[in-house]
Amino acid sequence: MRKYLLVAAVAAIVGLALDASPALARKHKEPSASGREIRIGNIMPYSGPASAYATIGKVEAAYFKKVNDEGGISGRKIRFISVDDGYNPAKAVEMARRLVERDQVLLIFNPLGTPSNTAIRGYMNKKKVPQLFVASGASKWGDPEHFPWTMGGQPNYQSEGRIYAQHILKRRPNARIAVLYQNDDYGKDYLQGFKDGLGAEAKRIVAEASYEVTDPTIDSQIIALRSSGADVFFNISTPKFAAMAIGKAYDLGWHPIQYLNNLSISVGSVLKPAGLEKSIGLISVAYYKDPTDKRWEDDPAIKEWKAFMQQYYPQGNASDSLNVYGYLLAQMLEQVLRQAGDQLTRANVMHAAANLKDLQLPLALPGVKVNTSPTDYFPFESMQLQRFDGKQWVLFGEVVGR
Amino acid sequence: MNPANRKAVPATAAELRAAAVVLALALLLPLALDGYQLFQLTQVLAYAIALLGLNLLSGYNGQVSLGHGAFCAIGAYAAAILMTRFGLPYWLAVPAAGVVSLLAGLLFGLPALRLGGLHLALATFGLGLALPQLLKYKGLEAWTGGVQGIVLSKPEAPFGLPLDQDLWLYYFTLSATLPMFWVARNLIRGRIGRALVALRDAPIAAVAMGVDSARYRLFAFGVSALYAGVAGALAAVAVQFVAPDSYTIFFSIALLVGIVIGGLGSISGALYGALFIQFVPNIADELSSAAPWAIYGVFLLACAYLLPQGVAGALRRLAIRNARKG
Asked: In sequence order, what are the residues at sequence separation of 6 or more whose Cβ sits closer than 8 angstroms to the Cβ of residue A98?
């Protein structure tokens, strides 16, 4: 009996060792940019219900490889360590701890998912590690007073919801509105902004239906929304479900004016699977250039991006706007790191991130400038409305917001 | 007095030696580990408690539960609510959470008495599916924090002991794991364990011999829920966050995987199963970032074919073979 217990103990130690292999070399180094390497952590849902977003992590990895090929930052190479949390907050906590404690990263960049980021926020702020450009538009990421190490990286969901509400009030003041939303932080944030934007007219919402990320389909929700007789539909769902909703609504013969949340505007991963003809008339917002938009065909930034995709991320989908988002954010981080100069400490990086002034990134829409300050932790606050014409998104109106 | 009715079964010398080795390892190894590894080990201990409970119900008593994650969630949320709403210290909240999940287990187990086999599996599956959504339900949001979950604060070592928080959390979890293992071992080796196994293997004969089927089956449900609840509470304290997304049906299935891989109907199996659930997904991830779940599946298949009685069973066979040789 003792023998097999010893075997078990050895197995356990081996298991731990396997998991901790680089740890033997680690001992307490100064985190980050020691020597010639800048270690950047990233948490993405490579598996699970939100895996459509994982391409963001991959395009970012490709971007940093390009930066390295071009000489790195101040002579230092970037080591981009991207791990999977499966969209599970408890796993995200474990991964954050691993990145910070085992891999000794300088910062965690663009971690994705509102619940996962909520789970790690306390830890990141306690350990004073930047949780930078969170891939989530939840309004809670702009709270420098309580969480000075956490900064958002997407336009605020509530602002976007408000923009749609105001457009509806202007164009269809007698609308009957139906809403589909994902039953989590992100869905509820959008809904809140939307209702705030409607103000007293919030009673125009005649039907609300929610779904879980673990649901296999949302057919019943769409059927219920259709039967409410609504003529305006606000679709707050992530790519997989948005595609289902768009397709199902059309198939049921329901053709409301549909507002689609910005997370799911990708032609490649949402509209094509839903059916391009079924997506005609969809309204959303944009803050960066859509690669399928003919308007940007000769745009130097888009051409550069397409060349980059060919060379560094050929397996990526060149019509998926998520791949533009990842590139855009990676460029933003590069800017922050260069601004932090030679003193690449965590505090300095955070300081640089909180002092971006009128940064017009080439892939962002003209007029959409990144602005942050020690009291403003929302880098993207302006957007422009756009409508899908069956082939691409066409911008209309003006850039709104700050 | 009839020795068969004695409550506690004395340990053999060999068992005590083995326990001493394991205890020494459990107490001393952590001193050499860093915060992240301690965090992982703490989770392993919590999983082990949950698996112990599930094994009691499904392994020893044959009542298959496909939704045991729900009891972990109940325990986790009970602890979180007690800590944040009622200001209970964590070391009180954990046992209190155990009591809450015990009650939940009894409540669920009572109507479940009418069900057997696949129907019970389906009922528990339903529980496992429903609970995360219930936790997000608007009406309960004031208590559960809805989709936002509940953030907990990290416990400090008591009496100002100069212990790292992670180290303290590990020892605290260990101090719960050890007695729970000991109690489970005594339960299984004693009268109750025999009754549970008899009800699994030959229910008609057992009832004919005077074993109260309803009472013991309900007992199994309650106790296994208690174990799961304590495990959930301990894990919640270690992660400092409870959210409905952590307790999806996949988690319940992972628990089932744990007891089968570890070894159904074995106490030590709970520990092996916990090590499997905690580390194999990470190993799979490092082996292949493109298809980690495929690797995980391969691991599972390999274990199913090579270790039909789980790791514990395989080790037992090894020990028997060595004893025969020597």
From this structure: A83, B36
The upper half-sphere exposure of residue B239, i.e. CA atoms within 13 Å in the direction of its Cβ, equals: 33
Architecture of the domain defined by A25-155+287-381: 3-Layer(aba) Sandwich (3.40)
Min Cα separation B305/chain A (Å): 19
Instruction: Map out the domains of chain B as residue ranges.
Output: 34-248
Please count the other Cβ atoms lying within 10 Å of the Cβ belonging to residue B27.
13
**ipTM, 2 dp:** 0.72
Calpha distance B5→B2 (Å, rounded): 6
Chain B contact set for A4 (CB, 8 A): 315-316, 318-319
Among the listed residues B89, B69, B70, B64, the one whose alpha carbon sits nearest the alpha carbon of residue B79: B89
Q: What is the pLDDT of residues B22-46, one digit of tens each?
A: 888 888 888 888 888 899 999 999 9
Interchain pair B241, A90: CB under 8 A: yes
CB contacts of B319 in chain A (<8 Å) are: 1, 3-4
Residue A76 CB: number of other CB atoms within 10 A? 19
A212 and chain B in contact, CB less than 8 A: yes
Closest CA to A191 of A208, A213, A216: A208
A102 vs B36, B136, B241: nearest CB: B36
Q: Residue with structure tokens 């992972």?
A: B254
Distance CA A378, CA A362 (A): 19
pTM summary value: 0.77
If you ran DSSP here, which 8-state letter would residue A390 be given? S
pLDDT value at B51 more than 60: yes
Summarised one tens digit per residue, pLDDT across range B91-111 is 999 999 999 999 999 999 888
**A206-253 confidence digits (pLDDT tens):** 999 999 877 889 999 999 999 999 999 999 998 889 999 999 999 999
Name the CATH architecture for the domain at A157-286. Answer: 3-Layer(aba) Sandwich (3.40)
Q: Where are the domains of chain A?
A: 25-155+287-381, 157-286
Tell me if residue A127 falls in helix, strand or coil.
helix
